[in-house]
Amino acid sequence: MAKFVFQSPGKYIQGAGVLNELGEETKKLAKNPLVISDKMVWSITEEKITESFKNADIDFVYEEFNGEASENEINRLTESGQKNDSDIVIGVGGGKTLDTVKAIADNLGTPVIIVPTTASTDAPSSSLSVIYSDEGEFTGYRFYDKNPNLIIIDSEVVVNAPVKLFTSGISDAMATLVEAKAVLKSNGENMVGGQPTLASVAIAEKCEEILFKHGHAAHKAAAKGIVTPQVEAVIEANTLLSGLGFENGGLAAAHAIHNGFTTLSGDIHHLSHGEKVTYGTLVQLLLENSSDETLKRYIDFYKSIGMPTTLKEMHLEDTSFEDLVKVGELATDPNDTFGNLSSKITPEEIANAILAVSEFSEDKE
Asked: Is 118 part of any known ligand binding site?
């Protein structure tokens, strides 16, 4: 008998200026927070967050995140939480910060509040973390019994981050429906141990609809630091809809290929998660034997927001076929999600598809 599973965060708050509500919202859950952020993000948000906690009459401990969602970094910050008797963990920043914070909260057995400062990934709402080595190579996923207790995302903060992060979030979210469809077709499992529900598929469909409808206009507004209805819609699609969609709809080849790219060295590591997922999505579409029209639609959209669709833009133009096969080998690791597309596709076929996407995209220029 099929088992359908859906889970979600406890509460989601989005809008211009909502970071000011962090203290009062924290007070509803705990009284001794550990706040974690990287140095750059903290320089932007410290004043508002400190004032918010002061207004709520809450003291907090701050720890700086060192940049990699690795087990060593998780353990280091967990020790700080234990030493300070922290009863809640708050992550402020981007995807790796937030994934690290979820792991720390799980170690401590506390609630967790997620404060994304970009709309660059769908990590904020999920009940999992992507874990890397200290050197940045993908090592696996870490799963939790529950999603974050609260997500607060301030639209004013998001549009003042580099616009490349905003567009990377769009590209990450564009994979949501593509991968969910593959999971459905293969009767695969989602990320929470069941088959996709009707709700998860509807969310994934709405996510893609919003991105195609508003993505270009939102990109232009966010580049100027302007919050518009289109920007708000895309922030929600990038953060909430994509998060619910990928976790409950499931992942397939696009993210597995992203993970495969981590085996390479060189300038590709300067690209964002979303940029690499862009290319992984195109490779999945090609491996699914999608029509030329479908591929062109996605490629044209990605190009309109400045995402990479060729090997040159991925800094892979000089990569050997053997190294692309290694990407395929890591992507098809049984512990990853490529099997939700197919268990019969070989690393060599993936390498060929990586090359073919670039050729098709260059031909459309």
From this structure: yes
- Whether the predicted pLDDT of 66 surpasses 90: yes
Among 172, 214, 219, 336, which one carries the catalytic annotation? 172
Beta bridge partners of 132: 138
Confidence grade of residue 121 (pLDDT, cut at 50, 70, 90): confident
User: Is 258 marked active-site?
Assistant: yes
Of 21, 246, 46, the residue nearest 128 (C-alpha): 246
| 133-192 residue pLDDT tens | 999 888 988 999 999 999 999 999 999 999 999 999 999 999 999 999 999 999 999 999
CA distances from 308 to 143, 209, 289, 290, 356 (A): 30, 21, 21, 19, 14
Residue 91: closest CA among 144, 134, 146, 153: 153
Domains of the chain, start order: 12-159 (3.40.50.1970), 252-365 (1.20.1090.10)
**Residue 144 annotated as part of some ligand binding site:** no
The answer to whether 337 is annotated as binding is no
- For position 87, what pLDDT does the model report? 97
Hey, is 198 helix, strand or coil?
A: helix
117 is in an annotated binding site: yes
Q: What is the CA radius of gyration of the chain?
A: 20
| Residue-by-residue DSSP string for 78-116 | HHHHHHTT-SEEEEEESHHHHHHHHHHHHHHT--EEEEE
Identify the active-site residue in 106, 214, 219, 273: 273
Q: How far apart are CA 116 and CA 270, in angstroms?
A: 21
Residue 216 is a catalytic residue: no
Whether 255 is catalytic: yes
219 counts as catalytic: no
Q: Is 219 annotated as a binding residue?
A: no
Which of the following is catalytic: 106, 154, 255, 336?
A: 255
